[in-house]
Structures are given as C-alpha cells and as structure tokens.
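#struct-pred
JK: can someone run the complex with flavin-adenine dinucleotide? inputs below
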Amino acid sequence: MESPISNVAIVGGGITGPALAIELLNAGIKSTIYEARPQNYDIGGSMVLTPNALLVTSRCGVYDELCETSWPHDTVQLMNLKGDALGSIVVGSVEKYGKSGLRMYRSTLRNTLLAEAARRGIEIVYDRKCASVKENPHSATVEFEDGTSIDADMVIGADGVWSRIHPYLNPDSQPKFSGQMAVLAMAPRNLIADPEEAIMFRLLIDKQGNFAHMPANSQSGNQSVLFFSTFEVPDRDRDGWRKIESDTEGLKAMMQVFDQEGWPETARTLVTKTPAENFFSWPFHTVRLYDQWVSKTGRIAVLGDAAHAIPPSAGQGAGMSLEDASTLAITLGQINQKGLDLASGLGRWEEHRKARIERVVERTQAKSNQRKNTKDDAEQAEKEKRMRAAKDDDDLFWLYGYDVEAMSLE
Ligand SMILES: Cc1cc2nc3c(=O)[nH]c(=O)nc-3n(C[C@H](O)[C@H](O)[C@H](O)COP(=O)(O)OP(=O)(O)OC[C@H]3O[C@@H](n4cnc5c(N)ncnc54)[C@H](O)[C@@H]3O)c2cc1C
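RT: done, structure tokens with the ligand placed:
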C-alpha cells in the first residue's frame, strides 16, 4: 500500500489553483500554491459561471460572496441586425438547474478564491515561476526560475494554457490557435443611453461580423458593461500575439467596423466612446484534449486550461477547470482513504474528465461556428434558419446538473 498523499505543490494561482487547494483541504490534503505573478496582478475581463461551476464555488465556500458582486442571468439572446431572434445561449435557470448563471469580473473570482484559500491557512507564494518539474516513484520536485526548488508528494500544474508542466507530460505538444480571436473592452454602463439596452445580454450576428454587449459585473456599485467581437485572424508566434495585445489603438480600430449603418446605436457608441486603453485581445488557443494529464508514477499532473484550454463560446473554460479541481481533489481523497494505487486512480479520473470535456468541446465548437462570417445573404439566411431550429435549452442537465461527487473509485 502506498503512503498517502499528504502535501501537494500546486503550480499556478489563477482560478483552478486556489479552487484545487481548497478542495484538497476539504479532502484532508495540505497544499501550497506557487504563482508566477505578483499578488495584486489584475487578470482583466468578465466571465459567466454556469450552475455546474457554481456548485464548485459553493463547495469552496465563496458562492454567497460571488453573488454580491455578480449579475445573475439565464440567457444570452442571439439576434440579427433586424432585431429578429435567432435563439439563445442558456447559462442557467433556477427552475431547471438550481441556479442562474453569474456574470462577474474574472479578477473577482480569482481574488475571492485566493482570499478564501489564504483564510483557510493555505500558503500562497507569489512571484515564484516554475521552470521545470521532475519526479521519482515517491515524490516530485518543482524547480523555479530563481534557482530554488521544492519537493512534494505530488506536483499539480494549474498554470494555464502556456503551462510548463503540460510539455513535461507531452513533449511534442503545443497550444494550437483556433483561428478566432476576441477583441474585448469594458466601459461604464451609463455610456449606453437606453437603460434597458444597458442591461441586455445580447449577441448580434451578421454575415460580416458579430458583436456582443452585456453587464460585466454586479447590479450595484461600480457598474460596467462588457462588449466584444470574435474575429477570424491568421496565427502568429507568441511575440506576434503580444504585439497585438499591447496595440490597444489597433484593437480599438478593429472594432470600428461596428460604427456603421445597420449596427445599433449601442454598438456604435461603445466602440467609438470607449478609450483605447480599455481594449484587450484574447486569441483562442486550445490544448489537445487527448494529451497525457498524469505522469506514469502519478506524481505529476495537470488540470484546468493547462490540460484542455477551450474557446469561450459556450462559457465553459473556467467551468471545466473548476470541475477538474473538485473531482481531482475528491479522487485523491479516495485514493488516500482506500489505499489505492495513485497512478491508476488518477488514470480513472483523467478518463472520466476527458469523456465529459469532449462533449463540452462539441458544444463549444457549435457555438463558435455561429460566430463565423458567411459569404453572402443566402448562406447567412441558411445559417439563421439552422440557429432558429437549434433549441439550446432542451436538455442541458448533462452540463449544468453535473455532480462532482459522481465519480467514484469503487
Ligand atoms: C477575457 C476572458 C473571458 C473568459 N470568459 C469565460 C467565461 O465566460 N466562462 C468561462 O467558464 N471561462 C471563461 N474564460 C476562460 C477562463 O478564464 C479560463 O478557462 C480559466 O481562467 C482557467 O483557469 P486556470 O487557473 O486553469 O488558468 P489561468 O486562469 O490561466 O491561471 C493560470 C495561472 O498560472 C500562473 N502561471 C503560469 N505559468 C506559471 C509558472 N510557470 N509558474 C507559476 N505560475 C504560473 C499564471 O500567472 C496564472 O495565474 C475567459 C477567459 C478570458 C481570458
């Protein structure tokens, strides 16, 4: 019988890292988080958490706090430029799934989870960047860029799409650009003259572009609106993407395609009146789902975006990452309790999670395709017909009703 996992080194203090640390503690396992960035780093942007993700925030003890700083909503309305409904993206429902979706700043989620982890006595080491990892059958080591290193029973990479740990497990694999990049910005909500429009969750889809706007955070206090569009652009190297990201004037210029006749006044106002420094970009990189997540000894693993980054079109990037955190911690708790073999127990976890995420990737791909431009009116009419026919809320219980405790190593 293997000795139990009693201390884990988590690389990455984004969203998955602190959720994993709290869930490990719930399972009786201590951990330390090593985060490359400083404590006050602002990750930017706004996100929706759907009921499956919110279950994890409840387990981590932060759901009530998040409710205070978020906007609850059930759908994003899809429309064409004539204002005709094309369907909706369902993100929650109290009646069907127990909770509405919650839209919040990404930094609110991250900071709330990190604060809760710290409150529970979990050590978080900032400004500590992992350079490499190594393992033996009984432990694993993180080597940092500052020349120091630490040993733990297990090292888990929650270090995002450009993970240092994923390539250790999959030396030939690189994140792949999906072909789509979002240009986003936040603006004060009162920039939108019509108060009803200012609180709409709306994605406008035309043959030559798509434009979404919605409240970005809470219903009270400092209120913002998020707006974005998804563009099809060529791939670049990492320096090329950094250049795009830092050229906020260029990003604002890209969004001026919506300042023309046909687009609603709200879109035209937002893209013209929002200062350039508020704009940012997000190229959607994906990580091959069928790469290895767990090393042969079971001492090194990845989860979250480091394992399976997916585009945001179905609002499930963080959702899948949070589910990973709970299920991995529960699995390790069971391995400890029952004295099971680490590598085979984690192999079962990996298999279970991949089957679920594969289905989510399919849904994400379908939603991404809706945002692709069409070449002419006939193709657009065909696309709109398909969108109207596709009912999003028929059966989402498989997605939003997921029980993180359902995976058992019995
Ligand atoms: C603008 C935007 C909007 C989004 N909207 C949604 C949404 O609506 N719904 C949704 O579900 N998802 C959304 N997502 C996706 C979601 O944010 C990600 O899926 C989620 O953040 C993944 O969490 P993570 O902790 O795995 O990775 P990350 O959040 O990327 O965190 C990784 C952490 O690891 C740290 N790190 C990296 N390398 C190292 C290293 N070598 N050593 C130590 N630390 C390291 C990083 O600094 C970072 O803090 C959105 C993402 C963006 C960018």
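RT: quick notes.
The chain has a mean pLDDT of 94.
The radius of gyration is 21 Å.
JK: thanks, will look after standup
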